[in-house]
Every structure is written in C-alpha cells, then in structure tokens.
Amino acid sequence: MTRHLQLHCFIIISLFTFPLCSLISAQTNYAAYAHTKEEMQQAVEISKTYRLAQQNLRKTEEELKQSDWTYYIAYHKNRFDNPPNRKKSQERYEKFLNDYLDKQPDRKRAQQLVEEIKKRIELSTISRAVQYRDSAAIIGWYLKQPDNPHAVGLTLEGKTDSEVAAEYVVLHKDQFQQAKINIESSFKDANIPRELQGALYSQAGDQLYYPMAQAYLDQHPMPEKLKQATDQAKQAYQQYASLSAVLKEYAQAMLYSEQINTLMQAQDADIVFYGKVLDQNNDPVPDATVVMNTRHADPKGIYNMNITHFSFQTDANGQYTVKDLKGHLLYLEKIVKDGYEYEFKANPDRSFNYSPKDDKGHQPDTEKPVIFRMRKKAKSACLITGSINVRTKSNSVYYWNLVDNKRSRLPKGEDQYGRDREYFHADLYTQTTYDTEKQAVIIKLKADDTGGITEVDSTCFTAPDNGYQNEWSISINSRERIEKRLVLHSRNKQVYSLLQTTINCSVDSKTNKWYASLQVTTQSNLFGQPYLEKMTREEVDWKVQQFITAKAISNIHAGIKPALPDIEAAKQEIAEVKQRQSNKAEKNKDVPIYLRGQVIDNHDKPITDATVIYSIKHYSKDQKKNINSQTKHIKTNADGYFEIKDIKGSRIDLQDIQKDGYIQTNKRWDRSYWDYYSSTSYKTYQKKVQIFTLRQPQEPMCLSQGHLYEKYLRANRPTYFIDVIRPQMMTPLSWENHAKRWDENKATDPPYVKDLTVSAQPNAQNTGAILSFTATQGCGLITSENKYYRFPDEPVKQTHQVELEFSNKKKEFYLYVSSRNQQVYSRLKIETHAYTNTDDWGVVVDIRTMANPYGNKSLEEKQRLHKQLRVKLLTEAENQLRAGEQPQLPDLDALMKDFVPKPERPRQIGP
Q1: Per residue in 222-256, is it b (16+ CB within 10 Å) or e — as a string?
Q2: 124-152 exposure pattern, b = at least 16 Cβ within 10 A, e = fewer
Q3: pLDDT digits (tens, 9 = 90+) for 251-299
Q4: What is the CB-side half-sphere exposure of residue 742 using CA atoms within 13 A?
Q5: How do strand 370-373 and strand 269-278 relate by DSSP bridges?
Q6: Angle at the Cα of 172 from the Cα atoms of 167 and 177, rounded to 5 degrees
Q7: FRET pair for 33, CA 20 to 30 Å: which of 231, 272, 317, 684?
Q8: How confident is the model at residue 468 (pLDDT cuts 50, 70, 90)?
Q9: b/e per residue, 189-220, with b = 16+ CB within 10 A?
C-alpha cells in the first residue's frame, strides 16, 4: 500500500510541477491552481499579496496587544466582519443538539430543558467574562447604559467599565454560584453528554456576548493603524477570492483531465480474492461479517482515486469470495461476529495489491485461501483487575496481594514500622537478579506455597488444568522488551489470575547501573473458577459486577469461600439497597444550626461591622440528593463576633467576609463549611468559636522574590551568607572566590552583598543543633508569624537562634530583616530540621525570600507586574544601592501602562 501511494505522489508531482504544489500547500482557506503558466504566475502573486496582508495584520495586532487593551475590542471587530468561526460553532452546536434530542423519548420536553440550561449558562457566563479585559469593558459599558434594569444597586459614577463589571459580579456572586450549581445538576439529571455541554456553553455565550459586543463596537472605533491593516487584508482577500473561483476551475480541469484518469485507470484490475476465517483452534467461523475496502480510479476522487467499502459473509466452512470488483488495492478493515474477537496483531497481512505494474501483487488461489484469525471468547466471569508497576534493581523482592492490589517488601505485608497490613496475603512475589556471566537481568515470578504459574499464548483465556510450576523466570538483555502472558493460581486454587506482562531492561551508560521495569495487568477470578474472560458491560452492568466482586473480597477477608456469583440475586440485592437508601433519604435531615465566629485582623484585633456572607442548605425530599440553599448576610459586633442560630438546615457554607479596606489573608480558613448531618460535627462546632482573619492591604511594591532551596549546613560547612536582593545563598569560600573573580574582571555579574549570616552547630548535649541568624552591622531582625505584609514597627535584635532536635520533625517560622543601613527590608519564610548519622550531622533550611530595596517597609507584592519590568527595576535598584544611593519609589501604574516587553527568543529545537 505504501509503494502504491508513493507512485500516486510521483505522478501528481510530475504533472503539476513544483509551483503548483507550492500553491496546494499554501496556508489559506482557498487553494489556487492554474492551467497555463501565465495564469499560474498570476495566482502565485495574488497569494503572496494576500499572505503579506495577513502577516501585516497579525503584526499590527501584536503591537496593539502589547500597548493597549483596545486590541481585544478590535480583535472581536474582525470576528464580526468575518464570522466563519461563529458559523462553525453554530453548526457544531446544532449537530450535537440533534444527536442528543434524537435519543430522548420526549423531544419537546428535552428541547425546553436545553433552553432553560442555556439561560442559566448565560448568567454564569457574565462572571467568567469579567475575568477578561475586553469582556469586562463591554459588560461594564452595557451596565452603564441609561435605565438599565441590571444596574440596580451599582455605583456608576467615577468608575471605569471594568470596575462597574467587577462590582456587578460581586453584588450577584450568590446568583452566579447558584447558577453554576444548577447547571451541573441539570447536566447530570438530563444525562447531557460532554460534547453537548461544551456546545451549550459556546452557544449561550454567543447569545449573551455577541449582541452586547456589537453594540459596544458600533460606538467605539477601531485604532487607525489596525483599521488600515484590516482594510488592506480585506481588499487582498476579495481580490484573491474572486480570482480563486476561476483558478479552481482550471485546477479541477487539470486534476480531472483525461490524461491522469487514464493513468489511474491503468492501475486498476479485476479483483478476485478467496478468504477463510478460523478461530484459535483452527475451527471455521461461519456467518462472520468481513469488512473490506478497495482503492480504485475515480475522476471525482482525491488525486482521481477513491475508496469503496464492502462487506461479505462467511459460509459454513468460514470461507468467502470477493469478485466482480475493480481496483488496484484490497484491504481488510475488520471481522465481526458475536462471541468472537478480532485482533489486528493476529492478522499482520491485511493489504493485497492488484496493480498490473506490481510484479509481487496478490495471486488468488481457490485451493489456498488467505487465512484470517479470530479468537473464540471463553466463558466470561466477574473478574477484578489490578496492575503491577515496579522499577527494580538487583535482588529487589516484592510481594503482591492480587485480591486487594497491594504490594509489600515483606511476605506478611509488614511495613517499615513493623505493623501488619490487614488481610495481606502474598499471591505472588517477584525477584530481580543480575547474571554477571551472561550480563543479563533475570526476572523471577513465584506463586504462594499452594499455587503455581504457567505461560500461555495470546488466545488463552481459560486457565489450563496442568503444566504449572511454583516458579517462572526469564532472562532479558539491555534495551530488550519482552511480552508474556501467564496464568497463576493461588490460595489453594481459590484465585485464578491472568498476568499480561511487559518487561524492559536498560543500563545507564554513565553510572553503569542497570534497571528492570516490570509492568503487569492482572485479571483475577475469586470464585475458584478457571474462567479469565472478563464480562462486558453489555452482558452485565458494571455496577452489578462491582457489587459481586466487592462481596467476594469481603468474604475472602473473613476467611469464607465466596459462593459462585448469582447475577439475578445480585441485581435484586442492589435494588433492595437502593430502596432502603431511598426510604432513608425521605427523612428530613435538617437540624438546628449554630455557628459562632470572630473576625480579626492580622494584629489579632477584632473587626467591627464586617459582612459575613453565608448560605444555609436544606435537604429537599423531592430532589433527594440535591440541596436547595439560601444566601444570607450578618454583621460582626464591636468585638468582631457573629452568631448564626435559630435556623434549621443540613449544611452551612461560609462564602465570603467583606469589609472596606480589608482583604483576605493568604492563609486559608480551616473549614469553609460544616455538615450538620452527623451529631459529631454538630456537637463539635456548637462549642468552638471559629476564627477568621482579614488584613489591611499595604502599598504594592516591586519586590525581589527567591527560593533558597534546601542548603545543607554540615560540620564541614556550618556557615552561609545570604543576599536577599539577588537572591543567593553561598558559603564564605564561594563568596570570597566570587568577589575575587569580580576584582580580576572575570566575573559575569557583580559581587553579592551580605544581608544575613546563617550558621549551625551542635548543642552541648549533642542531641540537637542550634541554628543562628545574624543581621549585618547597624541593622536587625524580628521573628514573627505570617501576619505582617510590612516590616513590623518593633525593636529589632542582632541575632536569632533556633534549637532543633536531631529528627525529621520540621519547624517553620518567619523572619523579618532590615539590612544595608535600613535601605532594604525583607521577609523570610524558613522551614528547617536537623539530622544526624554515625559520622556526621547537619541542618536543612528551605528559605523563601521577599525583599523591598526602596527603603519602604511595605512587603505587599504588586500584582500583574511583568517579569521583564520587575527584573529591570530590581537591577536598577541594586546598582543604586551599590553606589550608596537610595532608590526612588517607581510609579508602577505608569510604568506598567507604558511598558512594552521585548519579544522572547524562540526556543531552539534540535541541534
């Protein structure tokens, strides 16, 4: 087949020449072709003009994208002028919708439900749209229109469009959240497939957003530069489109010319084929459907070639005959019959060439039909599946429990602390060794003391009666891959398992270490039956299979032999369980709700008149598992306390806490909601006072951030120096060598500045270590919790020490440092622990730094600050500090507005 396609390509290239082929591969919506040399040259020039206009348009859009958000508005303007994407989205939506409605018993009711879901999606789409600058501007502009009913409750004066849109989302946050919940529940209740869900989101967004955006764009003209580029692209497109229709006719005349058609027809011949379908036992498979196709000449096909599909039925002897067909290639697609399985691997020869120019074409022989293989399925059973994936080294031993799909290093399932794993039984153990003489890896698989293992072929799905051994091993060389199928029985022939095994071996050329990878998928029968063919979902629902196998596993854990599965009894038991759950669900689970909390700031002071937004969820008998919710508000008193009581519900969900001049801390609250279904949680949260923290935002700054990742302080390297601006953590020797290279003009960057010294030493009893942090002269440090987003106004000290025990127990704290004569203020989040062994000790520190180089105590990071701008500002500040000057606070808002980042160099791929 590959040789034949190459022949077609050669014919086309030789006929159309290189210029025409270059046009066929042009990245445009229309392909230009030509019949004569002059017309072909004209098409090439027009294609070049159109492509250059498109490139100019994209370049202009990129320039506006970096400098002005109106690019996004102009981008949508282009989408309105040329709506093929909208048309394609509409067609996609209609296709998925019709497919869904055709399967519904009540089409009219399903159509109404879809329309209701679209309305909910429109409401939810507003909150997502505000996240984008163009959508936020359009929605805000829409809300500011006179007498807009949606603008009730909004403060419109003195606010930008984006700010109005954001305020609208905050005001209707509860509605958006409820709309999202309703959408998800509607999808689940209506059983709407995933592809239709995506199409509904797209369609609902179009209905909400496009009319609003069109009205906005009518009153907001495009930037002149982009308008000119757009007009040029349109003119080139119109010229190209008008000519392409003419050129396309020439191309079709050329493609469908008698010359090419004659050449293609010369490849066709009469097709006669004799086939026979056998199973794994060489028995014929009657009444099987064989699906094949032929490649043949066709003036209206691609490259004058087309594909036609045919199907044939096998007779009582499994044979079938193909005749009265014409073509140059016959290909087998698949073979279908109930109770049988067709595998491509079992039939490597599926393509048969009949071209007269091929000397090695297929020669049909009625006495020797082509044999195709199918596997006759064995008796199916309820099986459990599992996997074994391990990368092993020499003498690595693993024990496997195939019933619970667990592994262990010890035969009884003991872990490293000596605790027995419950119900662990080693059905199989694997061992890997290295044969130095043969330079090969030996993988050994062994059954338990009562079991055996044997190798079978790809068609075996019933455990054999004999031929088992307690061990099975195989030798594998480097970069070799071996696939084997094994059958294992264990636990006194109570469990039969099919192991489909893949073994790989590799050697690291640098370290000369070898590794073996063992990947096994398992199918186990827990009922003492040798049947290893897994039931399909069409035979028995997977929930019923899961119920049967789960009950069998429970019996094995209890030492009881599982009874043979009874499908009908299992279905009846599942129905009874559902009925009991349904009867239980009818009870009202609403209970009295009580929640007492306090809102404080980051200095532990209470916040008065903070608005706590929460929702009480009620259990609905009609909707059963679905929950209806009511959103409410409550204010904190003078001590920051609030109390929610005298109300019934099934759950309370704390959504937000708002107060002008405050924002939430980075630390998440311990629980966002409390379930009152269980008496335990009810009693627990009835007594506790929940603490919620807000903080006052500081002046946003350009901060230097870094991560000094796990530097090891040991006996031979007990001291490190830290530069918080760059940032870097180095030993004194490395620090000295770097400064020396700078003095000799050989360093690529200036020397570092020592803001902080970190040192460690063992304590007097040698039971732990003392970690010391020392600030530079004339400055100091403060230890605190993560409460401050500015340097605290408290007395500083020169040194802070932390005592650590030699254990894996970690200690976390925050350190606030002032350095360089109070020109730099920084905060360090430090996580540390100490360790010891027979001949060494050490301390591990993991430090995250955040530094302000402008002599300002604020440690609030400016959001959405471009990386290139941050690096530029910090580099300038560092140079001024080295020159003995105090860097001036930059106007970040103005810089962000005027900053145009440099295009990043494309990543090089290959040599």
Answers
A1: bbeebeebbebbeebbeebeebbeebeebbeebbe
A2: bbbbebbeeebbbbbbbbbbbeeeeeebe
A3: 555 544 566 667 777 888 899 999 999 998 889 999 999 999 998 887 6
A4: 11
A5: parallel
A6: 125
A7: 231
A8: very high
A9: ebebeeebbebbbbbbbbebbeebbeebbeee
Range 691-695 average pLDDT: 86
pLDDT reading at 496 higher than 80: yes
What is the DSSP-derived secondary structure letter of residue 222? P
* 121, pLDDT greater than 90: no
**Cα-based angle 267, 272, 274 (whole degrees, multiple of 5):** 140
Hey, what are 143's tokens? 């809300």
Q: Which residue has the tokens 């580099």?
A: 875
SS3 783: strand
Secondary element (H or E) of residue 657: strand 651-658
The pLDDT score that the predictor gives to residue 37 is 52
Burial group, residue 75, by CB count within 10 angstroms (0-12, 13-18, 19+)? middle
**Mean of the per-residue pLDDT values for the chain?**
78
Rounded to whole angstroms, the Cα distance separating 51 from 464 reads 68
CA 122 to chain CA mean position, Å: 26
Residue 156 pLDDT greater than 60, yes or no: yes
First to last CA, the chain: 34
Strands 611-619 and 396-401: unpaired
pLDDT in tens, 755-771: 999 999 888 888 889 99
- Rounded to 5°, the CA angle 360-364-370 comes to 100
DSSP character string of 801-847 = EEEEEBSS--EEEEEEEEETTTTEEEEEEEEEEEEE-SS-EEEEEEE
The residue assigned the tokens 């007269």 is 356
